[in-house]
Model the fold of this input.
Amino acid sequence: MIKQFYVLSCFCLLALVSVSLQAEKVQADEFKFESPAQEQMYRQIISQLRCPKCQNQSIADSDAELSEDLRFIVYQKIRRGESKQQIFSYFQQRYGDFILYDPPVSPKNYILWFMPIVVFIIIIIALVMKVGKRRVSDETEISEEQS
Done:
């Protein structure tokens, strides 16, 4: 009887702890906005900022504690009346251009913007040269066999 009571009390304690932790997480994500426009702006901003810890997720999608802190900072800045550009500038100054999913075109980001185009052009040139050599060598062999 005592063993059953002990197991039941442990189970209840674990259930209460998990419910309280879940409630804490939900509470952290439920910010109160003055208008639907502010909430929409909040959702847009957090979806456009990359989580510095996760790197492949936005701070909206990430469960990392850092992302929770960043979402709260965005919330505070929106409540203070800052614009999207001011919020993005703050995060850029603090974390660099990497935090933005759409980094600005600037000399320090030319590699990010133009490297895919350069690699594509190099691949096309290599393919054209390889196909061109194959045609020339095939024509040379045919003309030598005919002679």
Notes: The longest helix spans residues 110-146. The CA atoms of residues 3 and 45 lie 53 Å apart.
